[in-house]
Protein: Cyclic pyranopterin monophosphate synthase
Organism: Marinobacter lacisalsi
Amino acid sequence: MSKLTHLDDQGAARMVDVASKDVTQREAVAEGRILMDPKTLAMIVDGEHPKGDVLAVARVAGIMAAKKTHDLIPLCHALNLSSVKVALTPERDPSSVHIEASCKLAGQTGVEMEALTAVSVAALTLYDMCKAVDRGMEITAVRLLEKKGGRSGHWQASQAGDQA
């Protein structure tokens, strides 16, 4: 197991110094799901939700969150992302919305936290907009799917959901 990098020699939390790292193309993809009552999903898919297009709002919230990850997660670097994509796909079995986010940049540190934050905030936004009709929604399975670039190279999750 590698040494945790957010601790200094005395064991105190610190922001990692990435100044000596090369600028490389970096990309991360994350996913998650929000489970809901079939009636809630139908309301979203049929465009009958009283708050309008909740998927569009959640997509924008995910993109905005990725850009502000450094304000939300302690010790994260402020990054100049070159691309953020958030896809929300309604699925009937199980009744849910699958969320996938990808983040890219040319930089000295990875974008895994930004992709994970985008998924999480998109799911929380869906919950917030739909809670009046379905308080039993469940946000689940938020995980990193893939990361490319940097010293550690390419990593991809296995299909079974465990760490590869």
